[in-house]
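Regression report. Comparing outputs from two consecutive submissions.

Submission 1:
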Amino acid sequence: MKNIKLLLVSMLAAVFSGCMDHHDDPTNYTYGNPAVGEANTTIADLKTKYAGIVSSNKAEEVQENLVISGVVVGDDESGNIYKNLYVNDGSGTLVVGINATGLYAFLPVGQKIAINCKGLYVGGYGSMAQLGTLYQGKIGRMPEYTWKEHVKVIGQPDLSYPELTPMEIDEAWLSSANKADAAFFVKINDAEFVEADGLTQYAPEAEGDGGNGVNRTLKVGNTNIPFRTSTYANFSTEYMKMGKVDVTGLLTQYNGEWQLTVRTSRDIQ
């Protein structure tokens, strides 16, 4: 009887082990589409090609076989970036709109990817370039299944990619830069939060606007730029840092006005 019990236990262990080996091994899951080809254009060239469409806040389908490749420099880990990824290839940074959350679990900062743009749309949101699909005749976020058909994951996340080194900018740069080239991945040193008084939070829910965000003011030299934080960010109720700060983030523009968004609270030093 003892031998029979031992045999049954061994058989059950083998069955469960087999199930785990074939169905529960996360390494068997491939995110995206490995068939996406190699990059044949840059983000800067893609923006230039559709500059007229973007500036007029229209959207146009990419008809050519255009593939870009870059590194994720902005994800939705903290909740401050919502249903977007920011991808940088050294020539520029592009906003990619995806109607999904929890993207950082598969495509965190430091993940290199290739995107087949054919069949997607490039358009202007607040006169800034975005890659996505049509929504009510304008540029919008693409469905997640569409995204997975157009993206290829390249290797493992690597924080040593040069694309993850932000461009250091100052007041002079802000006054001379071409807003049509936004977004930018930047770092601003020795800035100050105008509203920081030890009592003011970044983005309390009660102060959220229609987009569930709160605009504060970042003073760069004698220039003030909006500093936008989502009320859903996991640091939204933290008190704003006082004094001089170094801020890393995504510098965007909306209808000609700069706007800075950080990825996590770690971007504020």
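Submission 2:
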Amino acid sequence: NVANGQAAAAGQPVAISTTGPAVTINVANGQAGAEGQTLTATGPAVIVSTITVTTSTTGQAVAISRIGDETLIGPPIPTTITLASLNEINEAAATISHAIATSSSPGGAAAILATDNSGLLHLRSLIADEIAGDLTPDQTDTRNIGSITSLWRTAYISEMQATLFAKNTASLIGGLFIIPHNAGTLAADVSNSTTQIDFGQPMTTGDIILLRGLLQVEYMQIGTAVTGTTYNVTRNLDGSGVNTWPAGQAFAVLGTSGDGRIELDAQTGQPRISILEQGTIYNSQVEKVRIGALNGWGSLTGNGIAIGDPTGERITYDPTNGLIIAGDGNGITNINGGNIQANTVTATQINVSNLSAISANLGTITAGTITGATIRTAATGARVQMDTSGIFGTNGTTEQWRADNTTGKFTAGNGYLNIDENGLTLTPRTSTPDFSFTPQSLKWANGTTTKAMIEFAEIVDHGTSRKLVMGMQGDTRKAELRFTWDNVSGIEYAALDASLISLIADETSVSGDLNVTGSYKKENTTGHIYVPFRTGPVQPTGWAGTSKTSGTYTLTAADLGVPSNAAAIAIQIGITGGTTGNSLAIGYASYVDAIFAQIQSGLTIAFASGVTNLDTSGQITASVSGTINCYIRIIGYYI
């Protein structure tokens, strides 16, 4: 007897209501061991054939166990189970519902998956061959792909854009890393013949770009725009050949003159960071900054930092030289503002506008040592300067005097006065004495008036007892050269008047060349020196009896065998084989001073000789009348 639970007919399921009194059901293998004990069925859904229910013990729980394939207690199992099904027996409808155990975050356990109320599904692991659609996180800057301990091995991504601020992240880049002026990828394939390329982005006319890959390299320059992102280009700037490039090929925009890029290079085992400025042509760039291996940057080696021009203004640090601040090319290093503090400052030169610019109490300098490479009264121009070589004075162009620290020699007068261990040496300024130049003379003066002097010109010693004496003599001559010698009577001298040098001697000999820039004069008459050909006359080529026809012929100084500055020649001419009236004239200009030979009636030969002038170019002209055999001989010349 079960309250509200009596089966209406045999085999009909019985619903047990919770509104009745406590029920005790005696089931084979399912007797409760104690009051209030919950019995759990030991198998699947229980089917029993006989149920005996007593109410001898109030509140006793009953466990029903299977004893065979008999009648199922309750209504039949529903054909449709939904996620919203509950564990419920509907007595009125004679139905039974079952809940499904699902999870949206099962972790490592097996489970039936179902999203949570927000539509989310959290899986510990997912294996999928393909994803047809976008993979988008539910929140920005919240979800991750992989972790610091679980890394993706390989990612094949055509294009990636990322905004990254990361800590404790290691990135490995092999060899060379370039941050150029700009970069991009080709929007379409590029053949080795096209001159119009789609870069997939706006470009700047004149920019130089670099493509590298597929075991090839090519530099290009952007020309005018064609349409959209397609531009005319100038290819193969590097001369290595025009290449074929696929769509998606990356390119670096190096820019044009003044643009820059950053390079991180560790290919050679000498890692460095360089900042380079692009030049006007593809392979022209200037390295403005280098950090790391300095080999190749000027003469520096080792690791350090270099900024500026290796041969000009620069700041460098390397293990060998330490910190160097090089100046503006004039030896000046400018440091604007602030203070420079150091234990020791060593400098070639310290320039200040005045001593008060040096903040120090110099006091009275009574002893000590001034150490420096150069001490001078002015940086440029006229000055007195002392350095390790000695002390000297200069007018800014020529060194006027010097006391040499190495030889002990004193030099003055632009090198014409020398005092050393050999005594006093005066070197003449010119080969012709000029008394207006004080360094040439050793003078005796009365106040400002010179009374006597010894003028030092070149002295040739003709014997151990001979000497040169020079001095003042009388009022009629400005000075006098006297050559005297012991035990020999007579005096040779040259009197020097204001505009005339008179050589008075039985014989004057010149050893070597006698060079005269003006004219030779005798009794104030201009003249020239005659130089004879002592070894025999000179016969010009083609004028030794050679047949000549009517016409004019030019002979140069070289043809005549005389110097180019010869003024005139002594010449002999002859003609043979002609007829009466045939002639030869040698001269210049209008033949005013020509040497003329003409065959007379009844004769077949004619001769003439004399002196004829050369023109300013050192040439003469031979004028031939008729067909004759001509002879020319030069026996000397005037210079």
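Expected: both submissions complete independently.
Actual: both completed, but the second showed a warning that disappeared on reload.
Relevant detail on submission 2: The chain has a mean pLDDT of 74.
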